[in-house]
Amino acid sequence: MSATILIVEDEPAIQELLSATLTRAGHQVIRADDGESAQRLLREALPDLVLLDWMLPGVSGMDLARRLRAEERTRSIPIIMLTARGEEQDKVSGLEVGADDYVTKPFSPRELVARIKAVLRRRAPQATEDPVDLGGLKLDPATHRVSAGEAALSLGPTEFRLLHFLMTHPERVHSRAQLLDQVWGDHVFVEERTVDVHIRRLRSALEGSGHDRLIQTVRGAGYRMSAQAEASQAVR
Ligand code: CA
């Protein structure tokens, strides 16, 4: 499993240890020393998960978690809080502001990696290597293979990531800006029509098996992947 994880921790030694632990577990790490620089990094690109220290200079970890949850764009990023005190009240407050889990310092690297994996599986399935199956279309992140029935499909790397995200978040409409954030990891430097170009390529790769129908254009809103559409068309 390889996810992009933003570490927000002001103590250099702990930040280093966290970074080494997560890198060894196969993740990409971005680091921030405080809440302000974390917010700056988040404006450029969204990570798959934020590992957030409770005690930070300036904006506290709890305030930052609250801000991330209040904003539409960052609302669904999974957050794991790091708390030094391990006090029951901190954990309760952390979960109240919307953290998904917490880890008490000093932490066990194995436990941290396991908790990250559990939260990602629950909250960001596109960052895991679990195979996905939707409407007869199968995608396996571990082997990077996509198949429709017996037929293997050939997709470019961006189309593969786009399809993975759509398959792990079906029945929901995603705007072009959201897709840029989630699939490209960037919504500032890439134009929104880039999304249309890759959707077109993805549809043409799925056309042979008829699975292009699973990707719907929702006018004025964006794109949606739905297995239900296929079922209703089959009935007709
Ligand atoms: Ca700290």
Keywords:
elongated; 236 residues; binds calcium ion; five-stranded parallel beta sheet; Rossmann fold; alpha/beta; Arc Repressor Mutant, subunit A
Please tell me about this protein's structure:
The protein has 236 residues and is α/β, with parallel strands linked by helices. It has two domains: 4-127, Response regulator (Rossmann fold, 3-Layer(aba) Sandwich), CATH 3.40.50; 132-225, Winged helix-like DNA-binding domain superfamily/Winged helix DNA-binding domain (Arc Repressor Mutant, subunit A), CATH 1.10.10. 43% of the residues lie in helices and 20% in strands. The protein has nine helices and twelve strands. The strands form three sheets. Strands 2-1-3-4-5 form a five-stranded parallel beta sheet, with helices on both faces. Strand 4, helix 4 (88-96) and strand 5 (101-104) form a beta-alpha-beta unit. Helix 6 (157-168) crosses helix 7 (176-184). The longest helix has 15 residues, at 109-123. It is elongated. Bound molecules: calcium ion. Calcium ion binds next to loops.
